[in-house]
Amino acid sequence: MKRSEDYRKLYESSFRDDAVWLDWMMRQIYSDSDLMLLDDESGTRTVSAMLLRSYGWRYFGTNLDMAYIFGACTLPRYRSHGYMGRLIDESLRRALERGDALCTLIPATASLYDYYERFGFARAVYIDRERYTALHHFDTAQGYGPRTAEYSDFNRLESESDNTVLHSPGEYRNIIDDLHLDGGDVFAVGRDDGPVNAMAFAVAHREIIHVKALYAHNNMAKNAVLALVRRKFGEQMVVVDCFVDSRKRALQPRGMVRLLDVYQLLNAMAASEPSLQCTLQVRDDRIAGNSDRFTIADGICRRGGDTPDLDVDIDTLTRILGSSEATGRIMGLRATHYRLPLMLD
Length: 345
Known about the structure:
- Helix 3 (about 85-95) links the parallel strand 3 and strand 4 (about 100-105).
- The chain has 10 helices and 16 strands.
- Among the domains are: about 5-100, 3-Layer(aba) Sandwich (Aminopeptidase), CATH 3.40.630; about 135-235, Aminopeptidase.
- It has helices at about 5-15, 20-30, 85-95, 110-115, 150-160, 170-180, 220-235, 260-270, 315-320, 325-330; strands at about 35-40, 45-60, 60-75, 100-105, 120-130, 145, 165, 185-190, 195-205, 210-215, 235-245, 250-260, 280-285, 290-295, 300-305, 310-315.
- It is of the alpha+beta class.
- Strands 1, 2, 3, 4, 5, 6, 7, 8, 9, 10, 11 and 12 form a 12-stranded mixed sheet that branches. Strands 15-14-13-16 form a 4-stranded mixed sheet.
């Protein structure tokens, strides 16, 4: 049996996606090179599997590599026997060996957050949701009009943020295909003859329009692109998944982060602001290279140093790096909220 067939059977045993979407996923998303499998003790049956996918990650002006765990599944009768735990440990080793700075995932159910915390993943990705009733009118400023949604515009808009996933051209096409399979679409607006300055990715579910991600330079551009969404789907409630900022309050977990290479991240942070000076003692029970003392000074990070200003475990460090700018400054570091939009989950 082909490895892809093994994975499809395992996936179908754990998830309830329809056949059309699953056919598309196996054709467009699945790759033998991303596949990780684990057999039972006899070696005759594959019982656990996942895809360890590769993405870019923008971290304070530096482009790093990120691993993303997708479609982790175990045959029902083999669950709670440690198979998935062994596969997760192996996936972290593989991601570290190929140079990934961090690993992310979106748990399939809320109960799995506790499970993944055992492996050093932190509940560190949050969203807020803005809700607009069916009667809400999105004012459109004069000069804004629809634009063709090109990858170059999307890449420019998402690259304007830090601590965020970066999607390749192929991933952008997958996002659009996934939206279309669900009856959704991508919308873009620009002003006069200028570039695209707002994009929205939206689907309609029952009586709700769900905007999965929205990028906008200002409120006028935001209203203009939401007006396009409303024009397409009609007068329904609009729910917008928002990136977290310091003003948000009603936060919901939307993913987890596992730091793989603390040195790589801290070195990028140091390069972004040479005035930073801080010494950290980090403890990581699973990745030995992260259990060390790190000193940030003069635009670089080096291992070693004098008495640490911070002594933290890997979970705490992950949360600090994904906290508000103000919290980071208190700790002597740079911080901004993690952004993990438009991931296949």
